Each structure stands twice: as structure tokens, then as C-alpha cells.
Amino acid sequence: MNVPPGDLDAVRESYDRVADNYVDLLQTQGMGDVRTHPWLKGCVDAFATQVRGLGPVLDVGCGPGQVTAYLRDLGVEASGVDLSPRMVEHARRLHPDCSFAVAAATELDLEPESLGGILGWWSLFNLPRELLPSVLTSFHDALVPGGEVLVATHVGDDDVPRTEAYGGVPVSWTTHRWQPDQLATLLEQAGFTLVAELRLPADGQQGPGVVLAGRR
Fold it and tell me: What's the pTM?
């Protein structure tokens, strides 16, 4: 899976710059805390119920680790990876009982049938559209039969270049927005069977979108 190094470096450096502000917003305003959003919390709770006991679960693009830690609280053997070293520093500090490593979704070397579940919680939208299919295929191959992947993303039809984020910090990344049915099609093409889909609002063309799929 070839990714132009400059593109990946720019995204990594951007997340390093926003990491401190992101963690501050998480701690002071609850931004990114799944427990404050009942429908999104329900998705993660259902995912945890489905994958608990199947094997390790990997949170890909874990940021400062808040969802990884929540999965651990639910009895899931969860660990996290993130492309941003600064995000991983925060994750290790805030959640010392969890394991975290620095890696991008395109850099993972996952063993076949080694994971019970994979979480891509608002972490795959920076991937160029042409790279997401191969990433999803790698996820499929890494799951045990019965394992599941939960993907959440920004819903929309276009790409949104970002030059600042989280309090005006300069960044350089593109938010690739997807419709849930587009994600569902990519997951099916990667070999997954669809389990559930959530779109908020239900008839909206923008907003949160979550897709759960399994390896059978």
C-alpha cells in the first residue's frame, strides 16, 4: 500500500500540532467522549458485546485513547494505534492501563485472523479515497471469523480541505466525507457482511455515519 510520504507526514504533523488542544477540549467540554452521545455510545456498546472474547481489538486512529479505554471498561481486550506521536503520548499518559503504539492505518502489518475486532472511529476520513478499499481489505483479513469492524465517519459527498482545527491551530489535511451506503459497498467488496448502519439524522446527507460489518 503506497502512500506519498509527504502526504502522510503532513497529516501526522498536523495532528501533532492539534493534539494538546484536542485533549483540552475532550477534558473540558467532553468533545470526542462517546459516553455523552447516546446513539454513538450504543454503537460502541453493541460492538463491544459482539467482539468481547473473540480476541484482541485494535482501535485504529485512537487519538488520545478515550474510546480504547472505554472498550477496556466494557471488558474488551483493546489497544490503540495512531499516526501522531503526540496523540499517543497523551493516550499513554491518560490511560496507562492500555497499550498504544504509533502507526498509521496504511502502515499496519496485521497478522491474518489475529484480531476479534477493529475500530475505525472517525479515523479513516483522512485517507485518500483510493486507499480506503485496501485498508478495509487488510482489516477483513486480520479478523477471526465472526470478528467485526466498526467504522464511523463524517457523512457527505465531497472532500473538505482543512487549514485549521481545534481552536484555530494550523493544519494540512483533507476530510474525505462518505455516505454510509458508499462505505457499506466498500466493506462488502472487502469481504465483509453488513450488520448495521446508523445515520444521524436518519434522513440527513451530512453528520455522523456509523457502519458495522463482520467477517463470516
Answer: 0.94
